[in-house]
Structures
1.
Amino acid sequence: MTWKKTRETEVVDTMTDAQDHRTEEDAPLTEQPTMIQLMKEDLQAARAQDPAARSDLEVAIGYSGIHAMWSHRVAHELWKRKAGKAPARLLSQFMRFLTGVEIHPGATIGRRPFIDHGSMIVIGETAVIGDDVLMYQGATLGGRALDKTERHPKIGNNVMLGSGAMLIGPVTVGDDVAIGSNAVVVRDIPSDSIALGLPASHRHKEGNYPLDPRHDLIDPATLL
């Protein structure tokens, strides 16, 4: 009887160890959000960052930046398919006509972006934008080469692009960066920085407070 119980215990322990091992090795990767989830997050980001927004319905109906972003979500998925490139371009051009925001369907945009006062914004084909990026009117992510290479900017997370800011060429902007209005960025900007001027120069924040560009939306120079 004792041997039988011991044997049963060993079998159970072995099965448990095998299950634990299988769980660790075969666990699925983190699921990517669906397009609907991304669109809901886009809406929530607009509500959170615009004090004038009074309801989800108002944002969904009346915000051109949301319309441009939602159409880009669809166009980007079409762009990934061989037969979808022409429809993707047509959709992006139609939305440019409606909103004044031109986003190439090949551009990669992360979660919870917000285009405030969407107008005259240009985002090129190979641009990459991280999560929680805020863009004001007139911001441009453009290229400066004719080669079919990665010729547009790469933007990190939690970045603010002021109105009229221009990022030209394959520059890299780190996380937690504020780029001032009408700044022209032609060189890399490290994380936790402020970029101002033409051409833009950067400096790290001063003081012991954390840099949060989203709380200094009017003039990043207030953080200098």
Note: The domain at 34-223 is CATH 2.160.10.10 (UDP N-Acetylglucosamine Acyltransferase; domain 1).
2.
Amino acid sequence: TTETTTTTTETTTTTTETTTTTTETTTTSTETTTTTTETTTTTTETTTTTTETTTSTTETTTTTTETTTTT
């Protein structure tokens, strides 16, 4: 009597787990504030006062007295 029993159990388990997490955050803030205030004030005031007074007075008095006496 020859009895041969062969039991072969082969178990192959392959687990491959790949987790990739990529987080990229780019924040660009550009703030430009330009304030230009230009004030130009020009004031020109000219006052000219001219007073000219000319007074000419010519007075001529001529008195002639002639006395002739004949005796």
Note: The mean pLDDT is 93.
